[in-house]
Amino acid sequence: MTGIRRSRDVPELVTRAREGDPRAVARLVSLVEDGDEVLPQVAAALAPFAGDAHVIGLTGSPGVGKSTTTNELVRIFRKQQKRVGVLAVDPSSPFTGGAILGDRVRMQDHATDPGVYIRSMSSRGHLGGLSAATPQAVRVLDGAGCDPVVVETVGVGQAEVEIAGLADTTLVLLAPGMGDSIQAAKAGVLEIADIFVVNKADRDGADATYRDIQGMIGLGERAPGQWRPKVLRAVAARAEGVEEIVAAITEHREHLQDTGELRKRRERRAAAEIEAIALGTLRARMEALRDGAVLADLARQVADGDLDPHTAAGELVTMTEAPNGR
Amino acid sequence: MTGIRRSRDVPELVTRAREGDPRAVARLVSLVEDGDEVLPQVAAALAPFAGDAHVIGLTGSPGVGKSTTTNELVRIFRKQQKRVGVLAVDPSSPFTGGAILGDRVRMQDHATDPGVYIRSMSSRGHLGGLSAATPQAVRVLDGAGCDPVVVETVGVGQAEVEIAGLADTTLVLLAPGMGDSIQAAKAGVLEIADIFVVNKADRDGADATYRDIQGMIGLGERAPGQWRPKVLRAVAARAEGVEEIVAAITEHREHLQDTGELRKRRERRAAAEIEAIALGTLRARMEALRDGAVLADLARQVADGDLDPHTAAGELVTMTEAPNGR
């Protein structure tokens, strides 16, 4: 992979991505994932074209059938002649930059379809996790003409919440008998899900899970006109109930448009993205101060108990603002 | 909860916490969790006393028996006359500030033991998740004389990695037949675990899980003298294999001390904590610029496609550094 490290190559790369060249899309996502120095140019070149795609977040615990469900959703979107982007974000692989279940084995049904772009990403322990690289990767797929863009991530944890900040429509997948009811009971999941899918609905306990979720949604307070989360049943492995999921996604998007909430969500998303990039810049500056010696010195003093971390942080902020000792 | 909002009350509060007053400890943890403005005073008052506790991270998927195992570990540490702190961090509850399974139902065995301080925390969607509030809460328990401090968190995701950054010794719990092998296979978990515990080892598939983990550890490269992760079996619900976990924790701590790695980990931890606080300060400044109007304006332009997020972030950083238009 050489030859596209220079900023003057970026506009051509974006043009090729917009024409549907999967290698150009792949290269752009890699630049985002690597935090390449040409990222500002990439972002600038994409800005006029990005921002229209419907971003669908899909999350759930390991084993609930996320990949299978995504695969089925893609199939239906393709029948609707849509160009689909899929980002499978794996926040548990911060070190190696990739999941063992990589691109090749995921969603093989669509591996050769030029109308589908599938990519696995790791969040690589970035501060802010998903919030740093994923929105920019979504922007690449969006700018390349993918609509919808599906962002799939393993649930439980911070990632789940971040996906909701990123998505227009958030799907939370559950499966019977996996302790998901208790997990879902935690307010976080209830507040992020626009659509619940009880997958593997042919298994024992599916009705109980369905009722649990319905019950909890019933308890929540909702302003007039506010979206009431839908609860659906599916057996994605047999393609059952998947058309209904797509219908619910469409209905939710129309609701967002009609109420002006879509615009609000996108502004919130943009604000979070701007902030994440700004903090990344500042963080890099902190770590670069005297080639890292400033932070290391402060850390040593804190570890010794000679300095508290707040005072140390204050010194670090001051030095970041005046890196040349102004 | 009134009367301790003023910074002049902080030293007294720290004194009371060090004397073992659980209400003082609780109040300090609340101040940390709320990001109270007296936090710098709290940190300064704790600095001379904190830094000695052995911090044990315990993570794993929902249902592997984390609370039960923590409960058993606490029982053994208490037999050893140790004062124990437990922080149960729930990163899936960012909105409400608390899990449904709160302090009261967790680890009831020790609810009335004054030598055990147990607290649930949510990470509340803080940027950086655990990295912002949890280290400061650990510092409170440490400063209050708890040693060890056990930090328990739901696995899979960013939280898992962050716990490793926070802990001296990281335990990863697995259970047979939960798809954990595949999860564990992801490099992230392998690299963070100092000790693997196959819990529910009386169940079918325990041997396979045990062998899978052993096999994967065998594949990893290790420098001479580097710790080889231990793999243990336990049935925490019947208190089986738990003494062995404590012995392995002790052995790991001795290894860290002998090799100088303990000091390195603590400096790394301090660096991460300093950086998280510094970034929190800068973030608050960004959000406060013209009462939030600056970020909102930039977000609107990005949502419109008139500006790209990198350029917007650059403007935000510049304005944060010169908030008065210098």
Automatic annotation (TrEMBL), chains A, B:
Does Nucleotide-binding show up as a keyword for this record? yes
Q: Which GO terms describe its molecular function?
A: GTP binding; GTPase activity
Keyword field: Chaperone, GTP-binding, Hydrolase, Nucleotide-binding
Taxonomic lineage per UniProt? Answer: Bacteria, Bacillati, Actinomycetota, Actinomycetes, Micromonosporales
Please give the Pfam families that the UniProt record associates with this protein.
MeaB
**Keyword ATP-binding, does the record have it?**
no
Q: PANTHER family, per this entry?
A: LAO_AO TRANSPORT SYSTEM ATPASE, LYSINE/ARGININE/ORNITHINE TRANSPORT SYSTEM KINASE
The entry assigns this protein to a family as follows: Belongs to the SIMIBI class G3E GTPase family. ArgK/MeaB subfamily.
Q: What is this protein called?
A: Transporter
Where would one find coiled-coil regions in this protein? none
Q: Which organism is it from?
A: Dactylosporangium siamense
- Top-rank taxon, per record: Bacteria
